[in-house]
Amino acid sequence: MHNVLLKWLGRLLMSLGALLLLATLLFIGGNFWVLATTAAYIERQPQQCRPTDVGIVFGTSHWTRSGVRNPHFHARMRTAASLIEHSQVDHLLLSGDNRTQAYNEPRAMWRELYRRGVASEQMTMDFAGFSTYDTLVRARDVFQLDKTLLITQGWHLPRAIYIGRALGMDVTGCVADDATVNVGWHLKLREWAARVATLGDLYIWGREPYFLGTPEPIELKERAPIDLILPSLNERFTAP
């Protein structure tokens, strides 16, 4: 009886070890795949980001849980306002969480960007961007975007770009980082897990957005030809 129990425990431990090894390989492999397939679509300097009609700014809280200003929020707003100022983007889709009346990410983004000089007619708010996945599905199906620039932190962009391109959108990314801010290990770990979960959302369980709604295409003024925009960009970024 004792020998049978030992054999059973041995097999159980071997099975658990094999499952742990498989999970580890999937975790590492999934992250490597997302990073490797999106690296070519990410620009780390705003002046190098692809000019396009609409840029998507991903929502996050204006404040941290400790009650201080969220540097990630302000880095996104600063980058988005700069892209508008230098005519690389004509319009901004502000997509974030507004599950309750007391928490409204799009409205906070709108106010901050307006304070930074972005005109109200250059901004559209999406109040149902409850997740990165929801934001991109709604950008495609509700706001009728097939080509766009994604504006968020460098650690977030690979997942966002992977989702967008998997949905058939022509997306590139513009990094909105703050060089003075260190990304904590807990945030990195959460993002590593989210990348793997994204593969499941897309290819296994067929995730649907929390709320889709009816189409609301963003109406834009006609964009100037790119050969007229680029000279002015070069002059602005090389001016003393």
UniProtKB/TrEMBL annotation:
<keyword id="KW-0997">Cell inner membrane</keyword>
<keyword id="KW-1003">Cell membrane</keyword>
<comment type="function">
    <text>Participates in the barrier function of the cell envelope.</text>
</comment>
<dbReference type="InterPro" id="IPR051599">
    <property type="entry name" value="Cell_Envelope_Assoc"/>
</dbReference>
<feature type="domain" description="DUF218">
    <location>
        <begin position="53"/>
        <end position="193"/>
    </location>
</feature>
<dbReference type="Pfam" id="PF02698">
    <property type="entry name" value="DUF218"/>
</dbReference>
<dbReference type="InterPro" id="IPR003848">
    <property type="entry name" value="DUF218"/>
</dbReference>
<keyword id="KW-0472">Membrane</keyword>
<dbReference type="GO" id="GO:0005886">
    <property type="term" value="C:plasma membrane"/>
</dbReference>
<keyword id="KW-0812">Transmembrane</keyword>
<protein>
    <submittedName>
        <fullName>SanA-like protein</fullName>
    </submittedName>
</protein>
<keyword id="KW-1133">Transmembrane helix</keyword>
